[in-house]
Amino acid sequence: VNLDAEELFSVSEAIATNSVGEILQAGGTPAFDGDELVNGPQTGMTEDEKAFHRVMAIMFGIRNQLMYNVEALDTQTWESYTAPLTERKIKETTFTNGATPRDNYYGRDGILELATNPNGRDIHHDVMKFLEESGLYLLCHVTSDEFAEKLAANHPEGHDPCRDAGVVSKVPFAETE
């Protein structure tokens, strides 16, 4: 879906690519400038790779709403974009009383409130943290246990994102999602 709410292609047909058009490798790395979604066949991909690209499609949509469409963003639109997070109880709480800004985090409602009413504050770090954590936690739900181990082994700060997310019971993508 583009910013004019026109569906370009299904998230199940989306493939995330880097700035030179190479297909992104499935992992826990967040999107970078120049990464984009293209419509392409997912033939030959593992189930984890397909899930990764679907997560990227979902998170690109959320990112675009927060960063490029926030002036027009309403609660109903936000809830439609974040439905996969809501279904899996991802990012339900906001905590802003941390000793340092790094200790704070925003839930779905909290980041929407912050993005639509920043009160002159630079919110880039808060938005990026929300996007990175949401994407990782969603990956934890929709990929295999082996993939979750890969996420933990490759985390730059040595975290286990699936344990941090409290994933006890995975909620994979439905065939119709």
What does it look like?
The protein has 177 residues and is mostly helical. The protein has one domain. Helix content is 42%, strand content 5%. It contains 7 helices and 2 strands; from the N terminus they run ββααααααα. It has helices at residues 47-68, 75-81, 83-87, 108-116, 124-142, 145-153, 161-164; strands at 14-17, 36-39. The chain has a two-stranded antiparallel ribbon with strand order 1-2. It starts with 13 loop residues before the first strand and ends in a 13-residue tail after the last helix. The mean pLDDT is 92.
Percent helix, as a range, is 40-55%
- Largest beta sheet: what is the strand line-up? 1-2
Query: What is the percentage of strand-forming residues?
Result: under 5%
- Described by its quaternary structure, the protein is single chain
Q: What is the average per-residue confidence, as pLDDT, rounded to a whole number? A: 92
Structural class: mainly alpha
Terminal-residue CA separation: 14 Å
Q: Low-confidence runs (pLDDT<50, min 5 residues)? A: none
Number of distinct helices: 7
* H and E order: EEHHHHHHH
Count up the domains: 1
Shape: globular
What brief labels describe this structure?
single chain; 177 residues; mainly alpha; 7 helices
Present the secondary structure layout:
Blueprint: E1 14-17, E2 36-39, H1 47-68, H2 75-81, H3 83-87, H4 108-116, H5 124-142, H6 145-153, H7 161-164
Antiparallel strand pairs: 1-2
Brief write-up:
The chain has one domain (11-164). It has helices at residues 47-68, 75-81, 83-87, 108-116, 124-142, 145-153, 161-164, and strands at residues 14-17, 36-39.
